[in-house]
Task: structure prediction
Amino acid sequence: MGEVKDATGGCLCGAVRFTAQLPSLFCGHCHCSMCRRNHGAPYVTWFGVPVERLVVERGRDELVRFASSEQGSRSFCRRCGTTLFCDNQAHPERVEIALGVMDGPIDRPPQAHIFFDSGAPWVAIGDSLPRLGGKTGYEPMPEK
Result:
């Protein structure tokens, strides 16, 4: 993917702009029902960075946080509704960023499908990335 030191992104209307200071911690496609409903898509690709390496350059006052579960919350732009970030109490040291809101590439491609067993049954995946699921969403799934 080439060397990328920082990656910039923002919401649809441009009110919120941020920089994710790389390297990232991971990148993966999430198939959980909350991600599907929140984005209106069959799955959402997230990448993570340590909390202190996410710098909101503009629009911090436009961010709204929604507690989507007992374990986490999602932050979105109050003007246009774009979901940008996800926080998980299981990993308070990191923030997950929706890859689709980035201006360009990050430092790695997606590495796995997570919560794959709770995904939409009408989605066909043709890649060879690992499929993880189970109670945590990160457990290896048996080969079919």
User: Anything to note?
Assistant: The chain is about 5% helix and 40% strand. The first strand starts at residue 6 and ends at 10.
